[in-house]
């Protein structure tokens, strides 16, 4: 089967940063489903894993953590899917990735693909959807179904993939969304997704929030980087919560969090599959919930650019675009 991988961790400008491969087709066992891949998306985590380093793989490494496709075959213990089902999912960072014609994945982290979306549109969603959903509803404890309607959330770095779906999930939960974006293009993008207020995270965030008539916010999601930590601590309400997806070596002073009795949470959407947690199937349930919301017209795809076909050249281009840090929404590569 065809696949795209690499042996050396090289700058993306170098042609051999990705290679077109021909490898053996895997077979499902246990709770795995074998998926015929139709489209994949590229995330910052893909770029981070592939980043240049002094390391060489003896056999080519295949990455990729977002996919939409069709179930080809199932393992003997599978109960959720059958061959022919259309699915979407974000995979498992500890296993071979989705940049291949066929891919094995545990059924517990797979969702029903939205019937109203193409495979390219669906592939843009799983990783960022799981990240935003878990950040808001599992980590911060916001009620998904509207019991916290009217509360505020500040999404720092709202124009990227996680922020783009996060805005929509927050609005579905009835929250007032303050979104940050640094360019006119991304500002227009987050407004189109439902943000109530848009501010520039390259300027004084605190002053801009206060100028909107808001002293404190109930919840804060840091979806770009932790240089905004002190700003988040200043703006969070007493007993509020902050969540971040960015690992950091920057100082994180905690005195302001203590005096506000505020909470801080890390979100890492691979944690459940990496550690085989007892509630791993929650990712199946949340993806199916979002599928229902999409098919009902309440949430839209966040794809902004589609490349075709899935090969080394287009994978290099997709990674290059994500590396710029300027992409809005998601970059997708479709069809082998």
UniProtKB/TrEMBL annotation:
Gene Ontology molecular function: any one: zinc ion binding
Major subcellular location class: cytoplasm
InterPro entries: ADH-like_N (IPR013154), ADH_Zn_typ-1 (IPR014182), ER (IPR020843), GroES-like_sf (IPR011032), NAD(P)-bd_dom_sf (IPR036291), Quin_OxRdtase/zeta-crystal_CS (IPR002364), Zinc-ADH_QOR/CCCR (IPR051603)
Domain of life of the native organism: Bacteria
One Pfam family in the UniProt entry: ADH_zinc_N_2
Keywords per UniProt: Cytoplasm, Metal-binding, NADP, Oxidoreductase, RNA-binding, Zinc
Enoyl reductase (ER) domain boundaries: 14-333
Any one of the GO CC terms: cytoplasm
Subcellular location: Cytoplasm
Stored CDD domains: AL_MDR
Family of this protein: Belongs to the zinc-containing alcohol dehydrogenase family. Quinone oxidoreductase subfamily.
Subunit structure, interactors included: Homotetramer.
UniProt name for this protein: Zinc-type alcohol dehydrogenase-like protein
Source organism of this protein record: Phaeobacter inhibens
